[in-house]
Write a structure and sequence with these properties.
alpha+beta, globular, about 220 residues, 8 helices
């Protein structure tokens, strides 16, 4: 079965929803089902810069003190599900380059690992995921090679200017396409044969949708 997930790696609801999804998907995979995951890019702050300001002061400036209190309460709730959200370290940044990295990881079969590492880098480690050097280091941790590396490609080949331009163009087009699907907030889970599921759905709901898709799939 195929599942497409629209998310942003600075969105805490995307992080929680994706964590719940991976647990549900792991259960299906353990039962012998194939779960193919594709990521759809979405920017919470389109066109945002990558100057990396501390997140909590930005939230207070833009949304007021109540937003900070709600954010910290949510972090306490998320901890009960195993997520470590260290907002005192988190940095506000644009995510265009992070999405470009996810797209490259997908072409190399490592998108799920890359998405998880980016979430953890932002929310737990307090890393600047808009910074090219940081992204390169995280890519290396996951095993994502620069450039258009893939089966049969030279693993150490650096990304060329032409490849970077092509990746950027593809990502702009995909961001437009995802918004054209009606996605205005994330996460959204598009499970084959089921209506879209919006928000950080409970694991049981995601598991039920995956089981139904597995029953309907031609090869189970």
């Amino acid at each position: 079965m195929r599942v497409r997930i629209a998310l942003d790696v600075i969105c805490v609801h995307s992080y929680l929803g994706y964590t719940r999804f991976t647990r549900a998907a792991d259960r299906l995979r353990a039962e012998g089902h194939r779960v193919q995951v594709e990521f759809l890019p979405f920017e919470l702050a389109p066109g945002a810069g990558t100057e990396a300001e501390p997140l909590l002061p930005v939230l207070e400036r833009v949304f007021g003190p109540q937003a900070v209190r709600q954010t910290l309460r949510f972090a306490e709730q998320a901890a009960t599900e195993g997520l470590e959200l260290h907002y005192e370290r988190a940095l506000a940044t644009g995510t265009f380059e992070a999405h470009r990295l996810i797209a490259r990881a997908a072409r190399q079969g490592r998108a799920e690992e890359m998405v998880e590492r980016l979430f953890r880098a932002h929310f737990t480690d307090g890393l600047h995921i808009g910074d090219p050097a940081t992204l390169a280091r995280l890519a290396g941790e996951v095993g994502v090679m620069p450039g258009e590396s893939g089966p049969g490609a030279a693993e150490s080949a650096p990304e060329t200017a032409a490849e970077a331009t092509a990746e950027t163009g593809r990502l702009h087009a995909e961001l437009d396409r995802v918004r054209g699907l009606g996605v205005t907030g994330v996460p959204v889970f598009f499970v084959d044969g089921a209506p879209p599921l919006t928000g950080s759905q409970p694991e049981a709901v995601l598991l039920s949708a995956l089981r139904e898709a597995a029953r309907s799939a031609p090869h189970g």
